[in-house]
Structures are given as structure tokens and as C-alpha cells.
Amino acid sequence: MDRVIWLVVGAVVAVLGGMLWLSGQEAEVYREIVVREIKGEPDTVRTFVDRVVYRDREPELVAVEPGGGEDVVEDFCRPDTVVQVLQGDTVWVAQDTVFLMRSVVHDAGWFFARDNIRVYGPTSAGDLREMRYSSYGGWSIRAGEGVLFREPRFGWGRPLLEALAFIGLGYFGGKVF
């Protein structure tokens, strides 16, 4: 029995010691990685299975502002600017890369889980970029020089309030009827 106690104590000390030793090291967080190929973006070619599983819908409303996106198109298509150095060498200075959002894939989270959102599109530098987000419902995305992803500050409370509303209705229905 003493041997089992010492083994348990040794295991606890080893785990706690390992946690203390690793707690002083910061985890590396990569904000941008370079990959050979990005997969997962929806394809525009529809197969028979796609036609059965998904349905295509036309937009309910289309609003057009004539000339409203000229500055964005100009920024996206603008070539790199050339700067002459005094010695006569030519230096290419890259502009800020502009992101052109091409597709958004939304995987809804069940119950209290977060939604997974993937945004795909090319940049003005010619790269294909994928960005991943996780959020509760009510999010919005805007693309430009960077991507602005907004989510409601108290979005975690919405599923809770919806569940409480159904519980309250059930309780009220049970008392009345």
C-alpha cells in the first residue's frame, strides 16, 4: 500500500513540476503561415451530389452604386511604384497589399459552440490567402487593405437567452395548461 501511495505522490509531483517548468515558456503563436496550396474553398463547378445537397438561390435584392468601387479597384490593380535612388539604382517599393474577398465558408456551431468562418481570396500581390475565425452568431466581415472581422461583444449570451426563453415558455405552458 505504501508503494502505491509513493507512486501516486511521485506522479503528482512529476505532473506539477512539468507544468511549472513549461509555464515559464511562452507558446509561439503564428499569425501568418506560408503553405504550398490552399484547399477548402468552394468550387464553382457543380456536380450531381452538390445539386442534391445544396440549392442555388438568387439574391433577394441587389443594390448598385455606380462608380462606388472605383477607388478599391484602382488600389487593387495599381502597379508597384518605382523609386529612383541617388546612385542610379532602381528600387521597387511594394504597395500595401489589398485583399479581394472571393468566398466565405461558414460552418455553424451547434448549441453553445462557436461558428467557424473561413475567408478566401487573392491579394493585389498575387497571393491566395485563407483566413480563419471562430465567433458566435452576428458577425460581419469587410475586406480592404486588411480584413475587418467584427463580432458582438456579448454574442456568447445569445444562445443562453434563447435556451432560457424556451425553458421559460415550457415552464409557463406547464403551469397554465
Keywords:
alpha+beta, 4 helices, 7 strands, 21% strand, extended
**Count of β-strands:** 7
Question: What is the succession of H and E elements?
Answer: HHHEEEEEEEH
- Beta-strand portion reads 15-25%
Uncertain runs are: none
Write the layout of secondary structure elements.
Layout: H1 2-23, H2 48-53, H3 70-77, E1 81-84, E2 90-93, E3 103-107, E4 115-122, E5 128-135, E6 140-143, E7 147-150, H4 157-176
Antiparallel strand pairs: 1-2, 3-4, 4-5, 6-7
Could you describe the 3D structure shown?
The protein has 177 residues and is an alpha+beta fold. It has one domain. 32% of the residues lie in helices and 21% in strands. The chain has four helices and seven strands. It is extended and about 80 Å long. The model has no long low-confidence stretch (mean pLDDT 79).
Could you provide a short overview of the structure?
The protein contains four helices and seven strands; from the N terminus they run H-H-H-E-E-E-E-E-E-E-H. With 177 residues, it is an alpha+beta fold.
